[in-house]
User: Which sequence fits this backbone?
């Protein structure tokens, strides 16, 4: 199946190494979670750094997803982030092809193809360019099943787009538009945090019977390195994952920010003696209210963080639901550490992003409330 | 007589700073003095390529007149843009410029030709390959390079970067492909509404030509007869995709369908000038919009992260450089018609190099764009949101050591 993550065969502890977002500094994290498949064999293969972690797997697995095809701007040669390298040679130009520069057309086209039964994987070159297609997604894709009384649906449509800040993207190559789509019943919005998650969640999106938008943190294309099982596997949608158990504060985020939060949790433990529970939301819509609320009931404090601007960002939705469900359990007001309400800046990016210091400060405030 | 003439000739040469050489010859009453400015042809007429027409009976003229001064001015403009772009390339490779940088070298004739035929009070809007137009619309090299390096002295105070440079009557500088075209039509509407006889030149590329919003703009402009010149700068490649692979019809000048169109040789500054003049007259006479396709070429890749040779051959780039380079073409024309001397061009080149060098210096050592209260200039007097409440985060984050005064920050190798 397409879009598998790269398999690195190193027996030693693998590291999820990640450039600290926006600053270019390097920090290594401890081993990320890996649910090893029993057949996880490790052949020696040279690690090739120049290939993206989304490179297609050499062994074609018979797909249960029907005849799929993938299209978008520049996907034929491999895509601007090398996500589709080799697919055209492997599967032919009927199934991997370029579109002209027309996002509305790309998504509309994908909806039509999906409605007629094909598994369509549309790529939008950057999430910042998805807006011309917004009408198609919200008014056509999301409402197809509903308005046709289940006669038609475009469930076999998946839209992929690189997402989030990258250090030098500025206004139009750094946006995180998940909040716009969270407001739209009928679609699913999914954001992975690492290669292992990416493979499982993407396969789930493609298999899911609803149109899905899969945002891929672009800074992680090169920065994230993990051992990923070769066989296809899925990670269930609408299930948040608790990465680290804790008792004092719940930290909720998704995508790139997870790595920042893990650092924040370590800092909080070390400097404040505060035990943090880190949760990756994974699916933004529909989101896993149960896991989050259960966690907040346990800890009593919640910090939500995302790169997108704070007003109307998805943290607001989580915050609102949690205070409804867990009001009496809260020890402190729910904290949101997010981007400012400005366009994503070029030169001010290091100031704009919700970095670990801001999050740490928020935790301190909550603890001392 | 001879002495007087030689005195005069020397005086003339001193004025122009040129070396007379010892070519004063007296043949009776005739004196030949070489290499003084009076010797050059003041004006010449050149044949230019015929433009392909769509929905038009007549097109731009087939001959263009060029005065010496105009020629030198166009040369200077194009050479300045060329040098500036090459300097930007250099600075980018030195990592002094970061982010995005889309270079315009090879396409200078378009910017120079258009500016030569419209008024400074006319309006212009383009996409992200905008440095050339920023210059022709009146921004100094210093301000452009400082903007690229994110310095306070930049035209957008260092906050816009490569794709977001603006000036009076120049609306940028737009990152989203094709989004500037409806804007341009709107500017044209404002011109029509205000009745000021101005027009709007709206530029886009061959990649953007397939965006739906263009056709919406064409329809509105034609319906309301807006004074808008839609110009497609067709440089044969939309990023890495050649026009044949992106467009069902590569006759971009015909894409306006019910809007008349002209296809122009975009490497010839005179051709561009005459065509734009023709188009401007068309608009100003109330006939409505017009589409122009400028066939041009870019030497660099799409942006600095694109080497530009994976989708086209080096031979192709070389061929265009040798056969159709806009600056060389103009220079040869002027030299072969004795409108200027080689030394003169050299002097201009030296002067431009110096200016660009100075601008680069200014751009490299200037102070960075101001942080602090200017982070949210579009909102007046609002406290910064997005962080722990009650803290003026914007002010405290100028330096990371000041970031959290309550926190005992030890030296952190990570940051």
Assistant:
């Amino acid at each position: 199946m397409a879009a598998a993550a790269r398999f690195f065969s190193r027996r030693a502890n693998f590291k999820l190494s990640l450039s600290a977002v926006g600053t270019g500094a390097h920090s290594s994290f401890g081993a990320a979670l890996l649910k090893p498949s029993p057949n996880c064999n490790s052949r020696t293969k040279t690690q090739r750094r120049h290939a993206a972690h989304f490179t297609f797997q050499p062994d074609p697995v018979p797909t249960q997803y029907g005849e799929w095809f993938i299209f978008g701007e520049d996907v034929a040669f491999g895509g601007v982030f090398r996500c589709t390298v080799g697919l055209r040679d492997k599967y032919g130009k009927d199934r991997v092809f370029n579109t002209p520069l027309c996002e509305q057309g790309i998504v509309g086209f994908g909806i039509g193809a999906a409605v007629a039964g094909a598994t369509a994987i549309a790529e939008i070159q950057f999430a910042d360019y998805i807006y011309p297609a917004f009408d198609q997604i919200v008014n056509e894709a999301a409402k197809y099943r509903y308005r046709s009384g289940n006669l038609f649906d475009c469930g076999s449509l998946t839209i992929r787009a690189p997402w989030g800040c990258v250090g030098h993207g500025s206004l139009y190559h750094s946006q995180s538009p998940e909040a716009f789509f969270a407001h739209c019943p009928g679609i699913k919005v999914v954001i992975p945090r690492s290669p292992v998650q990416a493979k499982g969640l993407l396969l789930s999106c493609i298999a899911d019977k609803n149109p899905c938008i899969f945002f891929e943190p672009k800074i992680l294309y090169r920065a994230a390195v993990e051992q990923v099982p070769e066989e296809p596997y899925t990670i269930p949608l609408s299930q948040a994952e608790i990465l680290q158990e804790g008792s004092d504060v719940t930290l909720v985020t998704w995508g790139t920010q997870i790595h920042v939060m893990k650092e924040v949790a370590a800092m909080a433990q070390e400097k404040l003696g505060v035990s943090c529970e880190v949760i990756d939301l994974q699916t933004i819509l529909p989101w896993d209210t149960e896991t989050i609320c259960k966690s907040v009931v346990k800890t009593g404090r919640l910090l939500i963080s995302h790169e997108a601007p704070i007003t109307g960002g998805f943290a607001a939705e989580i915050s609102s639901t949690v205070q409804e469900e867990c009001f009496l359990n809260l020890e402190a007001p729910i904290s949101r550490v997010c981007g400012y309400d400005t366009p994503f800046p070029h030169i001010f990016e290091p100031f704009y992003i919700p970095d670990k210091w801001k999050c740490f400060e928020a935790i301190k405030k909550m603890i001392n409330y | 007589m001879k002495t007087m003439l030689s005195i005069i000739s020397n005086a003339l040469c001193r004025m122009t700073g040129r070396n007379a050489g010892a070519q004063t010859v007296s043949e009776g009453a005739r004196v030949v003095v070489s290499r003084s400015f009076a010797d050059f042809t003041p004006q010449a007429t050149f044949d230019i390529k015929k433009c392909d027409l769509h929905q038009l009976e007549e097109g731009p003229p087939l001959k263009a007149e060029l005065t010496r001064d105009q020629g030198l001015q166009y040369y200077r403009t194009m050479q300045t843009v060329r040098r500036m772009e090459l300097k930007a390339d250099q600075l980018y490779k030195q990592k002094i410029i970061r982010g995005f940088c889309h270079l315009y070298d090879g396409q200078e004739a378009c910017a120079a030709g258009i500016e030569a035929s419209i008024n400074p009070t006319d309006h212009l809007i383009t996409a992200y390959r905008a440095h050339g137009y920023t210059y022709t619309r009146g921004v100094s090299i210093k301000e452009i390079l400082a903007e690229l390096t994110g310095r306070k002295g930049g035209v957008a105070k260092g906050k816009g970067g490569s794709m977001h440079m603006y000036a009076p009557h120049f609306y940028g500088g737009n990152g989203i492909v094709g989004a500037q075209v409806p804007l341009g039509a709107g500017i044209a509407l404002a011109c029509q509404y205000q009745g000021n006889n101005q027009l709007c030149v709206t530029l886009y590329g061959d990649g953007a030509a397939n965006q739906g919003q263009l056709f919406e703009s064409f329809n509105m402009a034609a319906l309301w007869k807006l004074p808008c010149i839609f110009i497609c700068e067709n440089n044969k490649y939309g990023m890495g995709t050649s026009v044949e692979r992106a467009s069902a019809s590569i006759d971009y000048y015909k894409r306006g369908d019910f809007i008349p169109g002209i296809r122009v040789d975009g490497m010839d500054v005179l051709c561009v000038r005459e065509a734009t003049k023709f188009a401007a007259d068309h608009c100003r006479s109330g006939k409505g919009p017009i589409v122009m396709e400028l066939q041009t070429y870019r030497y660099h890749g799409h942006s600095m992260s694109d080497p530009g040779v994976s989708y086209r051959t080096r031979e192709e780039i070389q061929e265009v450089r040798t056969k159709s380079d806009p600056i060389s073409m103009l220079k040869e024309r002027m030299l072969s018609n004795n409108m200027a001397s080689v030394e003169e061009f050299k002097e201009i080149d030296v002067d431009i190099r110096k200016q660009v060098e100075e601008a680069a210096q200014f751009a490299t050592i200037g102070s960075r764009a101001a942080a602090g209260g200017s982070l949210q200039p579009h909102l007046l007097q609002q406290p910064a949101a997005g962080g722990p409440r009650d803290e003026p985060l914007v002010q405290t984050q100028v330096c990371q050591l000041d970031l959290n005064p309550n926190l005992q920050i030890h030296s952190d190798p990570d940051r």
Remarks:
- Confidence is low (pLDDT under 50) at residues 1-60 of chain A.
- Chain A has two domains: 47-229, 241-368.
- The first helix of chain A runs from residue 87 to 91.
- The two ends of chain A are 50 Å apart (CA to CA).
